[in-house]
Amino acid sequence: MMQISNLLAFRYFDAAAQAGSFVRAAELLHVTHGAISRQVRALEESLGVELFERRNRAIFLTPAGRQLMQVTTPMFDRLQDVIYQLQQTQREHALVVSCEPTIAMKWLIPRLGQFHAQHPAVTIHLMTAGGPVNFLKMGIDLAIRRDDFHWADSVCGLRLCDEMIGPVCQPSYPHAFGERGQVLIHTSSRPQAWATWARVSRLSTRHATKLQLDHFYLCIQAALTGQGIAIVSRLMVQDEIRSGQLIAPHGFVADGSAYYLLSPQPLSEDPRAQVFADWLCEQLHAQ
User: Fold this and answer.
1) 137 by DSSP, 3-state: which?
2) Which of 17, 128, 211, 236 could form a disulfide with 101 if both were Cys (CB 3.0 to 4.6 A apart)?
3) 215 contacts 101 by C-beta, under 8 angstroms
4) Is the whole model's pTM more than 0.90, yes or no?
5) What span, in angstroms and rounded, lies between the C-alpha atoms of 21 and 40?
6) Integer distance in angstroms from the first to the last C-alpha of the chain?
């Protein structure tokens, strides 16, 4: 009697049987068509029966294949259900928080140690992402986002703080606007940041060279290495300014947007979420 030692072969067979195609099964499982074909062929050889008829690049289940599929499909469905339940149980113990990447890296992560010290019973699982939020699909409980997109009325939003933007650079970098050779750095995610700042601060940046980078983190790194003046959020550079690595020679101004803590339900319905929200507000208002 054959020992069931290669679960992968049964998984590939079941995917092909449901899709009716080795190619489609490969796409669904993110493997190659050849991998599906080899595993199914090996399974057929081990069982001593043909599971598919192969006709002109098309496949059709044999009676033996249909009989096996009646077992494999509910088996893998049940396995998926159990995996989901296990993940749900894990999520119930950890508060899953999604945060915009540079804010997470430069502001939130350095402060999470304080949160854990104050609230050891609450475990935070931090994920990085930006833009619109699908709580169920992303498997998250809370999201820290700037209000540069619309969210559904059913989403609960707690305003955390105004977005404050300003130019930062090395202390030795020429920061009086209009100086020769000056480079102004901005991220592609906010192409109008310099124009917004110039309008609010009433200073002109017309004659400077512009440098666009993909992420705020890269903009900050470029400023740290003396490549120019970067326009960034105050939240992203507080520690660098405090340490003297960067200066904000013209200060920061509100650009009209704000950061929110988003939740699919009222924060008061989840004690962990309420504790985290209260702590966030304390940290932001203490700055």
Assistant:
1) helix
2) 128
3) yes
4) no
5) 12
6) 70
